[in-house]
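Hi U.,

Before I forget, here's the chain from the pilot set. I'm dumping it here mostly so it's searchable later in email.
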Amino acid sequence: MTLPIFVIIPLGAAFLISLLGKRVKYVADILANLGALSLFTFSLYSIVSISTKGVIVYKMGGWMPPIGIAMVLDGLTVFMLVTVNLVSLVVTLYSVNYMQKYTDKWKFYTLFMLMLAGMNGVVITGDLFNLFVFLEIASIASYALVAFGTEAEELEASFKYAVMGSVASTFVLLGIAILYSYTSTLNMADMSLTLSRGASGYLVNFVAVLFLMGFGLKAALVPFHAWLPDAHPSAPAPISAMLSGVLIKSLGVYALARVLYNVFGMNIVFSNILMFLGALSMMVGVLLAIAQFDLKRLLAYHSISQIGYVVLGLGLGTPLGILGGLFHLFNHSIFKSLLFLNSGAVEYAAGTRDLNSMGGLNQKMPVTGATSFIASMAIAGIPPFNGFFSKLIIIFAAAEAGRMGYAFSAVVASILTLASFMKVQKLAFFGTLNESLEKIKEVPLLMRLSMIILALICVAGGLLIVPFFRTFLQSAVDTLLSGKSYADAVFGAIK
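Structure:
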């Protein structure tokens, strides 16, 4: 299997859409959806590849790593590829109808495919500088997509996001430069080997702080979260779903976990910092969300809170903690993408994001209402939905590690999340129908289909802890638990 296909397909689709999209009607929709479908198919095939062949290393241009650039397929890579490309496929399907209200839909798809190429590139690269390059491709495309409607609010949000994103990129690039000057390599596996021979503790800790600020800002961890509550509500609903569902995970959480676990090696200092930032994000995000009445802004604050759960699980560093963290990463990608698509459907039909202007939408929009209820229960951690299982594993992992305070904060944040989403359901979907909404109707077929697919995954997502499905999740956990043995696995796979 050729790994570069995960970057080649979206780049090729972006090129063809920009070339033909303006001239031929529907070609942008067709190319974008075909591209997303083929990427998801290849990501599923990569599960089979990794189970039969083990770690796969692709040598760019035939140059042997660590001199040449390498792309690496391991358990964590496969897990992230499936997550990113599953959400992307559903979102492109949704965009066919939703983006008709904007002019130049082909420009949207071109930028979307560039962002997808960047995210896939970050996940598959085995080279730290290439990770930065792909991170920038995805980031720059996302800055433009946030401003896609070109209203004053959207341009302001995009500008703030771009400025803070540039600061994050500067931290990351500075960290890479310092590591390169010390190790004389950019290959992550080779860097890991060099650092394991006895690196200066001060150097590793300083670079780790730079990466924590850079990738932490991309992941919207508190206190690096200021850009997110403006960027997510301003973007078109499909982009809000992508930003919250997969962008902050691939550019932020994945990159941070990969570097801390597989390059530096996790230690007690990193662990304590991640757990503290995770718990802080959980509580701050949910407390800010409760006070919101703009539906998309409320969802944006919940993204900060839910990322806190993921980082808390990864910060625990135990097998159960990492399992819970990665499981919640997948689950959050599904239910938060669904919630943003629900908010887009409501705005599409009712023309408002203000919860106080809604009411009784279940009567006119039964599919949107039902899928929104499923997603609300999933994010609140109510059984039998997927969010319940991942949150329970994280709480058990914290208790098992003797971190009762963190376990308690995870329970409290979940109760507050439930309270917040009961408010959403009550004001938006239940009760009597607002008179101004008498004439609205359910959204078009493809938008409904996208929401139904994600709702079904929310219901079935708990199956990932069933042995057959758990192997997919467990291989990602094992990659992080192997720590610096990642280097041996990569060099062992080079033929």
